[in-house]
Each structure stands twice: as C-alpha cells, then as structure tokens.
User: What shape does this take?
Amino acid sequence: MVSKRLKIRAKSEGTLVLDAQGLPLHVDGDEAMRARIEVAQQSGRRVAVSVLTPLEVRRTGEAAKRLQFLLSRFDVKPVNDAVTDAAAKLLDASGLDGHECLVDALVVATAALCTPPVLLVTSDKSHIPALCKAAEELPGSPRVKIVNV
Assistant: This one.
C-alpha cells in the first residue's frame, strides 16, 4: 500500500485546494467533501490548504485532533513572498479591498501557485470568483477553477 501511495504522489494530476468552507466540511465529516477528496487523491491530485485556513476554522477537543490529523495528510502551503506578491496583484487586478479580502486573496494566490490544473473548493460567491478571474492575469495565466459547496 505504501508503494501505491508513493506512485500517486509522484504522478501529480493537479491540486485540490480547500478554503475555509471546504476544510471544515471535511473535518466535520461531510460525506460529499470526503468523497471529493478521495476521488482527487485517487486520481493523483494533491490536496492543499493555505497555512491560514486552519486558523480560520479552529476547532477544540476531538474536532481539533481530527483537524490536525487531516492537515498531516494535506500539503499545508506557507505564506511566502511569492504568495504575498501574487495576492497583492490579485487585489489590484480585481479592484477588491485588501482589508476586507486579504485572506481570500492569499488563499487564491496560494491556489494559483499550485500545480495545475487547480480546483478551489469554496462557498464564496463574491470575492473568490473575482480573485480567481484576476489570477489569469498573473504570470503564466494560472487558471483556478471553483468548486462550489
């Protein structure tokens, strides 16, 4: 089983990024979210979250333990200079306010810098779509497709 897992990780078929809605759905046992993640992993897609997302969805008790376990199985992406530069460009291109949309911009920037094709799981219907559209103006024109939950 270990070798099968290594083969899946070695053959990257893109990235599934969870935002502050997708991650808690999984932590709270949502079957549809679990199935999405399982299908993504079986098809060689990496599952990733911004390092900021767990801060947005903090849990206590058993739920906190489950969150930590799940995070150990995902790629937790740091906020580094490349991400902050991309987020600034996304805010500029979309015309959105940095104070109100900072975390969303950082999450979309993180997604835009992941291995394509990228799917971003979100319930946001206002800021995230505008930021994803703006991502196409970044170098390399990364496309971040939204999966609404």
About this structure: The chain has a mean pLDDT of 92. The beta strands are 15-18, 46-50, 75-77, 118-122, 144-148. Helices lie at 2-10, 22-27, 31-42, 53-56, 61-73, 81-94, 98-112, 127-135. The longest helix spans residues 98-112.
